[in-house]
Structures are given as structure tokens and as C-alpha cells.
Amino acid sequence: MAESLPEHDRILQEIESTDTACVGPTLRSVYDDQPNAHQRFMEKLDACIRNHDREIEKMCNFHHQGFVDAITELLKVRADAEKLKVQVTDTNRRLQDAGKEVIAQTEEIIRCRVQQRNITTVVEKLQLCLPVLEMYSKLKEQMNVKRYYSALKTMEQLENLYLPRVSQYRFCQIMIENLPKLREEIKEISMSDLKDFLESIRKHSDRIGETAMKQAQQQKTFNTSLQKQNNINYGRNIHLGRSRILESKNEITLKRTFEEDDEHEEEVLTAQDLVDFSPVYRCLHIYSVLGDGEIFENYYRKQRRKQARLVLQPQSSMHETVEGYRRYFSQIVGFFVVEDHILHVTQGLVTRTYTDELWNMALSKIIAVLRTHSSYCSDPDLVLELKNLIVVFADTLQGYGFPVNRLFDLLFEIRDQYNEALLKKWSVLFRDIFEADNYSPIPVANEEEYKIVISKFPFQDLELDKQSFPKKLPMSQSVPQIYIQVKEFIYASLKFSESLHRSSTEIDDMLRKSTNLLLTRTLSSCLQNLIKKPHIGLTELVQIIINTTHLEQACKYLEDFISNITNISQVTVHTARLYGLSTFKDARHAAEGEIYTKLNQKIDEFIQIADYDWTMSESDGRASGYLMDLINFLRSTFQVFTHLPGKVAQTACMSACQHLSTSLMQMLLDNELKQISMGAIQQFNLDVIQCELFASSEPVPGFQGDTLQLAFIDLRQLLDLFMVWDWSTYLADYGQATSKYLRVNPSTALTLLEKVHRGMKDSSKKNNIFAQFRKNDRDKQKLIETVVKQLRSLVNGMSQHT
Question: Start and end of every Exocyst complex component EXOC6/Sec15 N-terminal domain (predicted)?
Fold first, then answer.
């Protein structure tokens, strides 16, 4: 308890001595102390308050008498103050009356001096305002005469130099308020002029592009002429007089070239002549002065990008005519010629980066458009004109600094389409030539006709040259025509390869590849289709083989022809070769196969009209009529084969004989034929004898010995076996290499023997007169049955062995 009292005194001292805002922490300490500390603190506080009240009361009692004395003295002074006030008022009245006249004079002087000062001030202000008014009047006049750039300069002077001097006047405020409006008006007018300019260049783009492309083409023609002229001048090295003549001619030619070029330059207008570029310069300057140059640049570039998209959008029917492509290219060239002009005559409006970006975008679109529309072109002439337009288009833009390598790469794609169109066109030409050909050797009545044919086709034959006129060339009329058309194709393919900025080696390679396609695909296909046509007979097939042989031999002349027009030697390592050799070989093989097929078909036709009486008792004593007709046909047909290569004729003859032998064998072994008499066997033997005589007569030269007769050996041994009835020898020697009937198969012999056996049975039933005959027949039938059993055992043994 005693400890808390000093603590309360300390708290009361802090409360009395500190600021009111800081009392809170002190009071909080009262509550944070011991229990009932608050009550003790309040008692201490009340005691402190009573002490202060007693001190205040003592102080008031001490000063009370002094206060009463001061009030008494103040009341005495009041009377003196009243007197002083009366005296001061009287003095003031007299002074006011005396100063009225002085005041009046003074006010008059002040008024005059104020007027004088105002006049001076007005003069000074008017001197400041007059230049402002004059400049503003000048500004209005410039606006009226559309000198907007000068008007902006005048506004700048007004704002920076004149108006700040008189800015406090109302008319100046009106001027200041009008200047932004005038600027906006100038911006709107200049922007309107720019829009008219953009519309103008959009309309004139095709004309500008056409002009630029003409100039580029003329420049290229001039450079080519100049290069040729230099080459001529370089070759002047023979005689002085001749040299002078050539020099004078060259000078005249060169002068004419320059004069023609000058005339073209006078006739052809430039982009500046076709379009007034002043609006874009003026608008650029105006926006630059106004500080909105970047806004103007963005607007200009945005509008030009929109125009670029419109220019790059082709018409749907563009691929139908060359004029559609020409208009498309002219518009694009005109667009970029204008951009190039703006790039070089302005600073910052168009940058090289911007034009390159715009060109790359346009180039991708152009390539896509050309790739799509060129695919619709089936006319090679139109594709060639398109290629020439693309070359001029690329050369023109390359002259303005735009990269065009991708366009020349595209031309290689279009070149493939051009070649495809050419191949289709030449396919029709080849078909027409083949259809119009009579497939007979070319007759020449005299030396003149012979030279005409030789001039069209490289043909040499020393033996034929020794013959007198009239004579016949081995090939038919289609051969020189095909050769001429192949050369025309090479010329047509060369036209596309020109001006592609490629080396002679590359052009030579392209020509050879195109020619290879023509030979291996188009001409080969036409030949194959021709060979397969049903109306093409054996004579025509023989002539086709002869034709392909001569065309194959002419391929080396085509290679020389390509080398001559490209100036590339054939000994060059990378020079491609023509594949005509394989093409014509394939066609020849196909024709040979067709000859074999048609011969077999003709043989089948004769076989089908064979009318054997398989039950005849005796033969007619002569060969069947159908077979003699067939042999005569084969004999006449093989006479036509004299111009064919020996192996072809021999193969055809062997194939025909083998097919005839096979057909006759099948006729004997036909399942529908149930029985055969020995008379029919004898008749069949006579027919086979005629076949063997035909084979031995050497219908086609070149066979060694009896090679051709071996085609009928199977039939001969089979028929001999039945004619001689030599079954004991056949069965005894079977399986031996020296067997007389080595080519007779047991199953074949069994089949035919069974048919003969049935024929004998049927014949014995019909001829049932003499018993002796019946006994002979019975013996023969028993022999046949024995042979049949033995043959069946041989056949079964062969099947088990197999």
C-alpha cells in the first residue's frame, strides 16, 4: 500500500505535465497495476483537485484589490476622452472644407494623365496586334488558294511567335480556338486528296505495269541486239576492206537500234507521267508538320495492303485467255512500281523492309494463283504465252530490285505442265498419222521425190541407191512424218526453255528428258494401241515392225539434232541419252507378239471350218480342202515377211507350225469326239503329210535341216504308230532314247486307241455279213484290249511316279 502511493504521485505528475494526446498510456498503467489500484488512484486524484482549488482561491483573493483600483482609474479617463473627440471632429471638418478645391484639381490632373496613358497603351497594343491580324489574313488567303503546307507554317508562326504576345485579347482566343479546326480541315482535305490518289493509282496500275513491262522487254531486246552486235564485231578478222564494210554496217544497225529505242522511250510513258504523285507528297508533309507522320504512314500502308490483296485476287476465268494473265501481271507490276517510286522519293513512308515483306506476301499469293490456274491450261500455246509473260513479269520486277527466283522455280513446275500439254497434243498428232498411213512402202518415181523423202528423214541404203527408179523405200509414209513431228516437239519444248536463265547444259538435259517422255510414253502408247487395234492385219503389223526399226535407227540423228540446237557435245558426262531404242524394241516385240497371235487366230479360223467324217471307211486320197487353203494362206503370208528380220520371220513360222500341230492334235483328242475310224486316221495322215511338205519347203529362209518339220513330230509318230499298227515295237521300246515312237505319250496313245476301238466296234456291227471278217475283227479287238491294258498300266505307272 505504501509502495503504490508514490507511484500514483508520479502518474499525476505525468498527467499534469504531458500533452493530452499522450495521456492514454499513462492512464492504462493505472489499470495494469495491482487490484483496487483504480479506487486508490481516484482518491488520490480527488485530493489533488482539492489542493489545486485551494491554490486558485488564494491567488484570486491576492489580486482582487488591484483589479478594483484599475476600474476606478478607467472611469476618470472617460471624461477626458469625450472632450478630445469633440476637438478632433471640429479640426477634421475645417480640414475637409479647405481640401475640396485641391481634390477637384487633383482629380482633373489624374483623369488627363490616365487618358494619356491609355492612348499610349492602345497604340502599343495595336502595334502588337496588327502583325497577328496580317498573319491570320495571310493564313486565310493560303487556305483559299489551297496552299496548305504554307498555311501550316503560318499557323506555326502565329502560335509560337505572334499570338503569345497578344494572348490576353478575346479575338486572339478566337484565333487560337480556330487554329486546331483549320488544322483538322487541312488534314481532311489532304486525306481526301490522298484517297483520290490511291483510287487513281488503283485505276492506272495496269497501265503503269504494262508500260514498265514494255520498257523491260525493250531493254532486254536492246541488250540482246547489242550482244549479237558485239559478237559480230568480235569476228571481224579477215580483210581490211571487208572489216570496214562490216564496221559501217554494224554502226548503221546499232544506230538504228538506238533510234528505235529512243522512239520507244518517247512513245512509252513513265509512272510519273501517268499518275500525279503530288498528293501523297503533300499529305506526307502536312502530316509530318502536324506531328502525325506515323499515323499517315500506317494509314497509307494499310490502304496499300488492301489494294495489294485486291490486285492479287485473280478473275475466275483468267486461265482462259492470255489477256487475263496479262492484265493480272500488269496490275501487280504497276502496284510495285508505284511502291518503288514512293520508296525512292520519300523518306520513311515506305521502307525497303516494308516493300520486301509486301513482295514476299504477294509472291506467295502469285505463285499459288499461277500454280492453280496454270493447271487448268490444256493448250500448250497458251501455256507458252503464259511462260513468256511470267518471264517478262519477273525481269521487270527484278529490274526494280525485287527477288524473283521463286518465279523461275515455278516456271519449272509449269514446264512440266507444258510438257504434259505437248504430250497430249502430240499424242493426237501421232494417232492421226497412224490412222492416215496406208502401211505400205513409200514409192518414189524419180530422184526429186527421193530427195524430198530423204530431206525429211535420215535414210541410207546403199543397195537401194543402186536400184533404178521407180523404186520403193522400205518404211511407210508415217515414218518421216513421225520423225518430223518429234523434231517439232523438240522445237516446241525448246521455246519454253528459252529465257529461263539456265545454262545450255541444263536446257540440253531438259530437252532430252522431254523427248524421252515423248518416245517412251506418248509414242510408245500410240504404237501399242495401234498394234492392238482389231483392223490392223498381218501386213500392217509387218510394216509396223519395219517402221519401228527405221525409227530406232533415226534416234542417233535426233540426239545430234538436240546437240546442234543447244551447242552441247554428246560426249559431255552429264548428257542424257534418248530411250528410243527400248521404246521401239518394245513396240516391235508387241507387234511380233501380235503377229504370232493373229497367225494363230487365223489358223484357228481354218481349223474351225474343218469337216472330217470320223467314220469314213477309206480316205479321199487327197488332203482336206481347208488345210490346203490354210497352207496357201501361210505360204502367201510368209512371203510378206521377207522384209522382217530373219529371227522374227522364223519365229512366226515356227510358232504357226507348232500351233497348227497342237490344234490338229487337240482335234484328234477332243473329248466330244468319241470314235474314229481308220479311214479317218488315213485322211488325217494325208493332211499332216501336207503340213510336213509345207514345213520342208522352207517357207521362211534360215531354218537348218528339218528344224521346222520337228513341229509336227508328235503327230507324225502318233499317226505312224496307228498306220503301221506297230504296238509291239512301241511297248517294247517305251522309255528308251532310241525308241521309234519316243514323242508318243502313253495317255495320248491310249485316248486315241480307245476312240479307234469304239470305231471298230461300231463298224463291225454295221458290217455283219461275213463270219471271216468278224473273226478278224475279233482278233484285232482282242489285240486292242491287250494294248489298252498295257497302256493303262504305263499311264498309271507314270502317275504314281509323278
Answer: 44-213
